[in-house]
């Protein structure tokens, strides 16, 4: 079985986000980027399947500028067999990404298309669902456990009410949640080997994909600053302050 796994280059989760002075977005120049953490979990799951003999080939795919190849090299260091870079310097929104992934899935014919449930830069949580809809494939989102069967998968999903277990026929789109696994620590020999693995380049035009109509962000603003806390001397003082605020 072939597994396609989508990865995205995003601002590193340890970076403190700064808003541009004109409110047009966040500062990205000179800021550390890395693989979206949920995508890293998806890559780890695909590699575990390969190590267990469930998957024969794992192919990492990404969309973005030249710098996105660093993210693909990271996926190759995890153990992916090859990578596909869909080059674009434009901002890629979920529907455009889904159209690209549909084209790649039709070309590669995987048994499973894995991706993170969302990216930490935009938190849209849309691409997996849109990809499944365009392909007319079953989908299992927010996966915290996946048991592969013969032509199907049993997926435990994290939902608001708890856990939900569903069976989906393959091929299917599955999106990874936080508790699916813990990604491995990359070793230097694996990072060096990744430099020699094949990385193919293409673009939207070659895939026959038309970019979706852009969604315009009118303004970006930081959250309001929290008021400093107040120390109280006794329970009576605490109750009094809560009453003053109308909370009791």
Name a few traits of the molecule.
248 residues; alpha/beta; Rossmann fold; 9-stranded mixed β-sheet; two-stranded antiparallel ribbon; ETF_a/b_N; ETF_b; Electron transfer flavoprotein subunit beta; transport; ETF_beta_N
Brief write-up:
By secondary structure, the protein is an alpha/beta fold. It is 29% helix and 27% strand.
| 3D shape | globular
The run of helices and strands is EEEHEHEHEHEEEEHEHH
Q: At the third CATH level, what is the topology name?
A: Rossmann fold
CATH architecture: 3-Layer(aba) Sandwich
Provide the low-confidence segments as ranges. Answer: none
Tell me the major beta sheet.
9 strands, mixed
Q: What is the residue-mean pLDDT, rounded to a whole number?
A: 92
- Give the structural class: alpha/beta
């Amino acid at each position: 079985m072939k597994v396609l796994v989508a990865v995205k280059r995003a601002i590193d989760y340890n970076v403190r986000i700064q808003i541009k002075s004109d409110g047009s977005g966040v500062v990205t120049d000179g800021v550390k980027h890395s693989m979206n953490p949920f995508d890293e979990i998806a890559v780890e799951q695909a590699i575990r399947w390969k190590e267990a003999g469930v998957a024969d080939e794992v192919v990492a795919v990404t969309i973005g500028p030249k710098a996105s190849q660093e993210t693909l090299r990271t996926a190759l260091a995890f153990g992916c067999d090859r990578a596909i870079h869909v080059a674009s310097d434009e901002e890629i929104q979920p529907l455009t990404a889904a159209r690209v992934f549909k084209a790649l899935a039709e070309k590669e014919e995987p048994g499973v298309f894995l991706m993170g449930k969302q990216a930490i830069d935009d938190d849209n949580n849309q691409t997996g669902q849109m990809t499944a809809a365009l392909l007319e494939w079953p989908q299992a989102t927010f996966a915290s456990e996946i048991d592969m069967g013969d032509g199907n998968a049993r997926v435990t999903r994290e939902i608001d009410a708890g856990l939900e277990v569903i069976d989906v026929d393959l091929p299917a789109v599955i999106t990874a949640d936080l508790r699916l696994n813990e990604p491995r620590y990359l070793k230097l020999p694996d990072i060096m080997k990744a430099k020699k693995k094949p990385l193919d380049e293409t673009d939207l035009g070659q895939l026959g994909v038309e970019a979706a109509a852009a969604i315009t962000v009118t303004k970006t603003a930081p959250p309001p600053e929290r008021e400093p806390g107040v120390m109280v001397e006794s329970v009576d003082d605490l109750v009094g302050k809560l009453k003053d605020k109308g909370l009791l």
